[in-house]
C-alpha cells in the first residue's frame, strides 16, 4: 500500500489578501493577522483532500499535528497517522522542513503539501528530488511551476499517482522571489531548484493556460537533439541554467549544474559551474554560442538566476550567438508570450531586444519578442 | 434559488438582456436510456434474420456444407464475435441511442463555433439522395457521368471566382487533407526549381492558425516556425521578417484567425515571403468572415483551401464526411492531384495527364455528396447572396458580443476592436474567481438544450477560451437564448456553484473530464477494453 505524506503551511498566502505580497517570516505573519487576514491555506488543503477521499482506503495517510495537516485531514473525513511533535500556535518554516524530513524517514511515496513559493523552497531544501511532490496552490505569489493548477487538480493529481494512473514524474521549477524587494514593487526572481512532480501537464500550473495533454519530455528530447546535432568542432557552448538546458547535458552524458552555467567544447565538459570572470577568460577571442532558456511564467532569459552571463560576457560572445530554447508549454506560460532581459547593461539589453527565434523541438521554432 | 443577479445589467450599447427566466430552458431534460452496448444485449443464437435452407438442387451440386467450396486457408479458425440480437431489439437499441444525441434540428447549435455549424437546407439531402447520384459508380465511363462531372466542373469555376486563383481540385476529403495537398504542391514547386529541403526547409505559420497548418508541412519534411501574437492579436510584420530567410520555402496561415481578427498587413507579409522565394498558402476555413468581400489572390496568396462541410453547406456534426478542395495559382495547376475535371467545349472529362502531379490524395474524386450540396448552396445564393452570408455572420457575431462582453468575467482578448464572424472570448476571470474552467462552463450550456460549444484549438493562447460562432443562419431569438443561458451560467458560477461543478446535470451523458480524454487511458475497441477491465493489460 502506498504512503502519502501531507503537510500544510497554515499561514501560506496570508499576506496576499492584505497586500503584503507574501508571507515569509514571522513578522509578516503577525502583521497580516493584525490587519485582519484570514488563513486560506487550510481551506484550500481540505478542497484538495476531498478529491482524494474516494480512495482513502487504498493508501496510508501520514500527516503532522494540528493545522499542519491533522485538522484539515479530519475535516475532510480522513483518519490520519500523526507524526512529529506538537506544534506551537505560529508554525514556522522549520516546521515544514522537519515534517518533510520525518516523512522521508517514514518512506512515503508522495508528499502532498499546501503552501506558496516559500514552502516549495523549504521542501526542496529538505528532500530535493528524492520524493515526488504535489503542491496545493495556497501562497501569494506562486511563481513556481510545481504547483497544481487548483486545489482540486492537486487532489486529482495525487489520486492519479497513488493509483498508478500517472506513473512518470517530471522536474518542475521552484522559484524564489525576494519578498522584501517584491513588497517595494520590484520583482527579483530566481530559479531556486526543481522538485519532482507526477507528470500530468493538464493538472500543473505550468500548463494552466495550455490544457494540452502533451508531454514536455518529447520536446525537451527534441531540443537537446537539435542543440547537440548543431554543435560545431572547437566552438564553445555555454549551457545556461534550468531544467530545459539540463537534457542537453544529459544527452551529451555530461554532468550538469542545474542552477549554474557549464561550458562544453567538442562535446566534452570544459568548465563546470563557471563564474562571470571565468567565463570572460574562457570565451576571450574564441567562437562561442550561449544557450539559455526563459524562466517559466516570467520570460527572463538573462539577469535571473544566471547573472554569470553578464552584459560583458554577452558582448564578448556577440548577441547573434545567443540561442534560446523553450518548450511550447513554457512559451505559453510567459506573460504575453514575451521574453525579457535584464543583464545590468542597458546597451546590451537594447541589442538583444526585438523578435528572436526560440528552438522548441527538432524541427519547431517560435518567434518571440524580447522586450 | 433565483436571484436578481445582473437584472439591472444591460448589454453594451444599452441593449437589455431578455429575462433569462423567460427565455432559457431551465427544465430541459435529455433522454437517458441506460442503454447497454449492443454486445451486452441479446443471447447466443438470437438472430435478426433467419435464412431458408438451400434448395435440393443446390445441395446436390455443392453438398450440405458450403464451406467445402472455400479454400481451407481462407476459412476462419473461429466464428467472429458479433452481437447476437433480434431485429426488434436492434431497432430499439439504435433508436434509443439516437434519442440520446443532440440534433441540429432541435438545438441552437451554433456554439460549436469555428466549425460553422450552419443550417443545411433539407432539399440538399433530396438532391444527394437522387438515384442519379447514388447509383453512380466511380469506374463508370466518362460518357455516362457527364452530369456529375458538369457539377464538379462548375463547382471548380465557383471556387476559382471566390479565390481569384486559376485552378482547383475537389479531391481532398477534409480541410487538413486540403492543407496537406497544398503543402505537397509547395514542396513539388520548390523542388522543381532546384530548391529542395537542402536549400529551403522552413515554413512559417502562426500559433493561432489551425493545427494542420504547421502539422502538414512538418509531415512533408519542413521545419515549422511559429509566430506568437502581439497585443493586437496578430504578429506584427517585424516578427514575420525575423522569420523570413533564404531558407523560407513558404507560409501557411489563417486570416482571419479564430479570434475574428484579420491581419491588416497580410498583403505586405505575402510580398516579403515572395521576395524570399517562398509560396504563401491561405487556410480559408474561416471564409465565413469574407465570402465575396476579400479573395486569396488580392491578398497575395498563391494557394488556398476551403472546408465545404463547414463554411459552405453540409451536415457536419457527426464528424464527416467532408470536402477540402484547393485552389492554386495558374502556374501551379501542373502539380494538382490527378485526375482533374476538365471541359473541352463539348464534353467533360477526367485528366490524368499531369506528369508533375503530386499524385492521388484520395481514392477516386473526393466526397461528391458534399460537393453537390455546396454547389446547390452557392448556386441558390449567387454572388450577392454570398456577400450577404458574410454580412449576416459578422453582424450576428457582433450582436452576440454586445451581450457576452457585458457579463462580468467574460472578456474579448486583444486590443483589436473590430471582429469578423467569430470571437474568442476568455472566461479566465470566472476561473480565477470560482475555479470553473471554460470546459466545464460550456458543458453546463448543454443543460439548457444548447449543443456542444467549442473552446479553442491547442495550444490555448487565450486562457479559458470559448469561441461561439453564430454564422449567418441563426435567428435573433436563438442568439438571445444563447446569451441568456450564458448570463444564467455566469450567475450560477458565483451563486450556485453546485450546478456547475458536475455539469452537465440534465443530459444523457455525465461530465466528460480531461482524465477521460487522456489517450493513454482510452481503449480503442471493445476487446482491449475487456482485457483492461480484467487486468490483463494496463
Description:
The complex is a heterodimer of chains A (371) and B (538). With 371 residues, chain A is of the alpha/beta class. Chain A folds into two domains: 2-207, Probable inorganic polyphosphate/atp-NAD kinase, domain 1 (Rossmann fold, 3-Layer(aba) Sandwich), CATH 3.40.50; 216-370. Chain A is 32% helix and 23% strand. Chain A contains 13 helices and 16 strands. The model of chain A is unreliable at 207-214 (pLDDT under 50). With 538 residues, chain B is an alpha/beta fold. Chain B has three domains: 12-32 and 395-521, Aspartate Aminotransferase, domain 1 (Alpha-Beta Complex); 38-99, no CATH class; 143-380, 3-Layer(aba) Sandwich (Aspartate Aminotransferase, domain 2). In chain B, 35% of the residues lie in helices and 8% in strands. Chain B is built from 18 helices and twelve strands. Chain B has helices spanning 20-23, 56-62, 87-99, 122-128, 131-134, 146-163, 175-192, 212-219, 237-243, 266-275, 296-299, 308-311, 368-404, 428-434, 438-445, 476-495, 497-501, 526-533, and strands spanning 167-169, 202-206, 223-227, 248-254, 279-283, 303-305, 326-328, 340-343, 348-351, 411-412, 425-426, 465-466. In chain B, the strands form three sheets. A seven-stranded mixed β-sheet of chain B has the order 1-7-6-5-4-2-3, with helices on both faces. In chain B, helix 6 runs parallel beside helix 13. Classes of the chains: A alpha/beta (371), B alpha/beta (538). The A-B interface holds A 150-152, 156, 160, 165, 202-203, 208-214, 328-329, 331-332, 336-337, 354-357, 360, 363-369 and B 202, 207, 214, 218, 222-231, 235, 238-239, 241-243, 428, 435, 437, 439, 458-461, 463-464, 514-515, 517-519, 521. Strand 16 of chain A pairs parallel with strand 3 of chain B, so a sheet runs across the interface.
Amino acid at each position: 500500500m502506498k504512503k502519502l505524506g501531507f503537510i500544510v503551511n497554515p499561514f501560506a498566502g496570508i499576506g496576499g489578501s492584505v497586500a503584503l505580497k507574501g508571507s515569509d517570516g514571522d513578522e509578516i505573519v503577525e502583521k497580516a493577522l493584525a490587519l485582519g487576514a484570514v488563513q486560506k491555506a487550510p481551506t484550500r488543503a481540505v478542497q484538495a483532500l476531498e478529491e482524494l477521499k474516494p480512495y482513502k482506503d487504498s493508501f496510508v495517510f501520514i500527516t503532522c499535528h494540528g493545522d499542519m495537516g491533522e485538522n484539515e485531514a479530519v475535516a475532510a473525513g480522513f483518519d490520519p497517522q500523526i507524526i512529529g511533535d506538537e506544534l506551537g500556535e505560529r508554525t514556522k518554516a522549520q516546521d515544514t522542513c522537519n515534517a518533510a524530513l520525518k516523512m522521508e524517514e517514514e518512506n512515503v511515496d508522495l508528499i502532498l503539501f499546501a503552501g506558496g513559493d516559500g514552502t516549495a523552497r523549504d521542501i526542496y531544501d529538505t528532500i530535493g528530488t528524492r520524493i515526488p511532490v504535489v503542491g496545493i496552490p495556497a501562497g501569494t505569489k506562486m511563481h513556481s511551476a510545481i504547483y497544481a493548477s487548483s486545489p482540486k487538480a492537486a487532489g486529482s493529481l495525487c489520486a492519479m499517482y497513488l493509483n498508478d494512473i500517472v506513473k512518470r514524474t517530471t522536474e518542475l521549477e521552484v522559484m524564489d522571489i525576494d519578498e522584501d524587494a517584491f513588497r517595494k514593487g520590484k520583482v527579483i526572481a530566481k530559479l531556486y531548484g526543481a522538485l519532482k512532480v507526477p507528470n500530468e501537464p493538464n493538472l500543473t500550473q505550468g500548463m494552466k493556460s495550455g490544457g494540452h495533454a502533451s508531454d514536455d519530455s518529447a520536446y525537451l528530447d527534441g531540443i537537446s537533439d537539435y542543440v547537440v546535432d548543431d554543435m560545431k568542432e572547437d566552438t564553445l557552448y555555454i549551457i545556461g541554467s534550468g531544467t530545459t538546458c539540463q537534457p542537453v547535458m544529459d544527452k551529451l552524458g555530461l554532468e550538469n549544474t542545474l542552477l549554474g552555467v557549464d561550458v562544453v567544447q567538442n562535446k566534452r565538459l570544459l568548465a563546470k559551474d563557471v563564474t562571470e570572470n571565468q567565463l570572460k577568460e574562457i570565451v576571450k577571442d574564441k567562437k562561442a554560442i550561449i544557450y539559455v532558456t526563459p524562466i517559466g511564467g516570467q520570460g527572463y532569459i538573462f539577469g535571473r538566476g544566471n547573472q554569470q552571463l553578464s552584459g560583458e560576457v554577452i558582448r564578448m560572445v556577440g548577441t547573434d550567438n545567443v540561442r534560446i530554447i523553450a518548450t511550447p508549454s513554457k512559451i505559453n506560460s510567459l506573460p504575453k508570450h514575451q521574453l525579457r532581459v535584464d543583464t545590468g547593461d542597458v546597451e546590451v539589453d537594447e541589442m538583444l531586444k526585438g523578435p528572436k527565434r526560440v528552438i522548441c523541438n527538432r524541427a519547431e521554432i517560435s518567434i518571440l519578442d524580447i522586450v | 434559488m433565483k436571484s436578481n443577479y445582473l437584472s439591472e445589467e444591460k448589454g453594451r450599447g444599452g441593449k437589455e438582456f431578455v429575462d433569462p427566466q423567460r427565455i432559457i430552458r431551465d427544465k430541459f431534460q435529455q433522454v437517458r436510456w441506460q442503454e447497454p452496448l449492443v454486445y451486452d444485449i441479446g443471447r447466443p443464437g438470437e438472430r435478426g434474420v433467419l435464412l431458408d435452407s438451400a434448395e435440393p438442387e443446390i445441395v446436390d451440386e455443392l453438398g450440405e456444407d458450403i464451406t467445402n467450396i472455400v479454400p481451407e486457408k481462407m476459412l476462419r479458425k473461429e466464428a467472429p464475435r458479433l452481437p447476437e440480437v433480434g431485429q426488434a431489439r436492434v431497432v430499439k437499441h439504435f433508436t434509443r441511442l439516437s434519442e440520446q444525441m443532440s440534433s441540429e434540428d432541435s438545438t441552437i447549435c451554433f456554439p460549436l463555433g469555428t466549425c460553422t455549424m450552419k443550417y443545411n437546407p433539407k432539399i440538399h439531402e433530396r438532391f444527394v439522395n437522387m438515384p442519379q447520384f447514388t447509383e453512380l459508380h466511380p469506374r463508370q465511363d466518362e460518357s455516362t457521368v457527364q452530369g456529375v462531372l458538369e457539377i464538379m466542373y462548375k463547382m471548380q469555376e465557383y471556387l476559382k471566382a471566390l479565390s481569384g486563383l486559376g485552378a482547383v481540385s475537389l479531391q481532398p476529403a477534409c480541410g487538413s487533407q486540403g492543407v496537406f495537398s497544398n503543402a505537397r504542391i509547395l514542396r513539388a514547386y520548390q523542388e522543381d526549381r532546384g530548391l529542395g529541403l537542402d536549400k529551403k526547409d522552413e515554413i512559417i505559420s502562426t500559433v493561432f492558425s489551425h493545427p494542420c497548418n504547421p502539422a502538414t508541412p512538418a509531415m512533408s519534411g519542413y521545419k515549422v516556425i511559429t509566430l506568437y501574437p502581439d497585443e493586437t492579436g496578430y504578429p506584427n510584420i517585424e516578427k514575420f521578417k525575423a522569420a523570413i530567410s533564404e531558407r523560407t520555402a513558404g507560409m501557411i496561415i489563417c486570416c482571419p484567425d479564430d479570434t475574428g481578427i484579420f491581419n491588416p498587413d497580410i498583403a505586405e507579409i505575402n510580398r516579403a515571403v515572395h521576395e524570399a522565394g517562398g509560396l504563401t498558402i491561405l487556410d480559408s476555413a474561416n471564409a465565413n468572415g469574407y465570402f465575396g468581400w476579400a479573395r486569396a489572390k488580392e491578398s497575395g496568396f498563391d494557394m488556398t483551401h476551403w472546408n465545404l462541410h463547414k463554411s459552405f453547406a453540409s451536415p457536419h456534426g457527426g464528424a464527416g464526411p467532408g470536402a477540402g478542395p484547393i485552389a492554386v495559382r495558374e502556374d501551379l495547376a501542373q502539380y494538382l492531384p490527378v485526375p482533374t475535371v476538365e471541359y473541352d467545349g463539348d464534353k467533360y472529362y477526367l485528366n490524368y495527364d499531369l506528369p508533375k502531379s503530386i499524385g492521388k490524395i484520395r481514392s477516386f474524386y473526393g466526397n461528391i455528396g458534399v460537393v453537390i450540396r455546396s454547389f446547390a448552396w452557392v448556386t441558390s445564393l449567387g454572388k450577392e447572396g454570398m456577400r450577404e452570408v458574410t454580412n449576416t455572420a459578422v453582424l450576428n457575431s457582433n450582436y452576440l458580443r454586445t451581450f457576452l462582453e457585458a457579463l462580468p468575467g467574460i472578456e474579448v482578448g486583444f486590443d483589436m476592436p473590430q471582429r469578423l464572424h467569430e470571437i474568442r472570448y476568455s472566461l479566465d476571470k470566472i476561473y480565477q474567481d470560482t475555479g470553473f474552467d471554460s470546459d466545464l462552463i460550456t458543458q453546463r450550456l448543454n443543460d439548457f438544450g444548447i449543443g456542444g460549444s467549442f473552446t479553442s484549438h491547442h495550444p490555448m493562447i487565450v486562457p479559458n477560451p470559448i469561441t461561439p460562432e453564430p454564422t449567418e443562419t441563426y435567428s435573433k431569438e436563438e442568439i438571445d437564448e444563447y446569451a441568456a443561458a450564458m448570463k444564467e451560467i455566469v450567475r450560477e458560477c458565483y451563486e450556485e456553484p453546485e450546478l456547475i461543478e458536475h455539469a452537465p446535470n440534465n443530459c444523457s451523458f455525465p461530465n466528460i473530464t480531461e482524465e477521460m480524454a487522456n489517450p493513454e487511458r482510452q481503449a480503442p475497441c471493445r476487446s482491449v477494453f475487456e482485457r483492461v477491465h480484467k487486468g490483463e493489460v494496463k
